[in-house]
Amino acid sequence: MGQGTGQGPRSGRRRARAALAVLTAAVLGVTGCDVVGGDSPSPSGSASKRPKPPPVWDTTPASVAAVGDSITRGFDACMVLSDCPEVSWATGSRAEVGSLAVRLLGKTRAAERSWNYAVTGARMADLAGQVTRAAARGPELVTVMVGANDACRETASAMTPVADFRTQFEEAMATLRRSLPKAQVYVASIPDLKRLWSEGRTNPLGKQVWKLGICPSMLGDADSMDSAAKLRRNTVRERVQDYNEVLREVCAKDRRCRTDDGAVHEFRFGTDQLSRWDWFHPSVDGQARLAEIAYRAVTAEQH
Length: 303
Prior knowledge:
By secondary structure, this protein is of the alpha/beta class.
């Protein structure tokens, strides 16, 4: 009894200290991450309530610049062998078209905040120069529709090689990104030129205009159905498909670029959508259809 009584207080203190150490370790083990500022989620799950980052694609850009070829210039939509940019699908002001710029910005702001740098006859090799001029405006959205003239050459053998087409498009995108790293880019596919031939060849006036030099690789000798003519037209059609694949692949590498997913190429242009002068370029109604396609693509929510 005496020995136990002499050691009792010391033994009790040791047990108390040991119990305190165990309790302290237990508390730190539960709360340690929060104490040292770690990033483990708290028991309340507050980490799951953090706001999501804004989407990369803005469906309401505040300005638009267009680059491309005769389609974006409204060529042959208002008068024969002439540009008519006021009916352009991208930046036109005419109410019956409802251009992309007007749909996005409204008529007044579109007049002040949209610009058309497309050039009739332009090919992919010309795109970098157009992009440079457009970039000086600092647009939030750049629309691209180009490539038909790379297929519309004097002969099928003179069409732009697919590898060159790719390199030229990559260079144009790199040029744009050097000046406008955050600008959005909408790339329209190239129309099915063979379908345009199929629709237009029923019109005698259109075929006469074709003889002036409009897309001879596809439209030359329009009524011929021999094997050579069929092979030539199919070769042009396949080249356009290859170009569209290049547009899709290059655009897919840029997180601020989106295409129409082939919608323009697949659109079944009828006689109402074709110029009443050359029966090949889009009419005013055709320009309105292109504007609808573009608007759907640009305003689609990001998935």
